[in-house]
Amino acid sequence: MFSTRTALRLPTLRPSLAAPSRLARRPVQRRTFISSTIHGLSEGFLDLAIALPFPPEWPPYSCTIILVTVVTRLAFTVPFSVWAKHRQWRAENVVVPQLKREMPSVHKQVQQQMKQDGFRGDKEAVIAEINKRSRVIAAERRKELLKQHHCSPIPTIAMPIVSQLPLFIGTSMVFSEVARAPTVLDSEAFFTLTSLSHADSTLTLPIMLGVITLANVESSRWFVSAEVLEREQQVAKWTAERRARGEQILEPKKIYQTSLRILSVARILIAAMVPGSVQLYWVTSATFGLFQSWILDYWDMRRRRKQHAISGKENSPA
Length: 318
Prior knowledge:
Blueprint: H1 2-13, H2 18-25, H3 33-51, H4 60-76, H5 78-117, H6 123-148, H7 153-178, H8 204-218, H9 226-244, H10 252-271, H11 276-315
């Protein structure tokens, strides 16, 4: 009997060393700050989708993805886009006209400097030298005016991108985390998605994403004013003349638009590999961006027309 009790106590008095060795071999998963935040936001999204009072026939998780996308874009990206549009408007309607008014005095100043320097040459050489020196002075004056009116191009272009990119990446990571198995999104279908946790097998949403992105690029010229078109044609003419002389000319605007066109095709390929929840978010965000661009461009066009009407009345004889 004693030996039996002793045998029963041995496992408790002398714990086996095999268990700690097995535990030590298991990989310890440690959450970083980013992964913990993404996990917490994904749990909050699931709770929000259940708490929102959607009609019973509406898919709750799909509707919540659309709602969250619209609200975050309104709160975090629209203000910066409006801010950038104001700066662009000041650059085109304040800086450019003022620089045009100052150009005759710049040409006179250059001619006086050339006389003092004793420049000699035929008519074409004189005109080329005047244009060369005037461009340098005009570029410096343009920088001064842009700084004076707080509309430098680099912050105007960079700020909307900087404000949208972290939000886009972070939200995509949250919706990707939500779609990880096992997940309740596996049982919800939406549009051509048989499940929010799997990619669209018909490629309808990825193709829609590429088309919407391309439409955003191409429709940017729908609301361009006649003055801007005339200025672009003049710049294109100058660029062609300089290239005919053998000069290397970079056109950042064309490079930017070409890059966006390539991105439109690349987004189709990338979107085909992500879960349906992320695909739905990307399509909703791109659609919101398209309508946002149309509204801001239309508002800018109306403001230009109103300004031209006011300036026309001021310049008309009494």
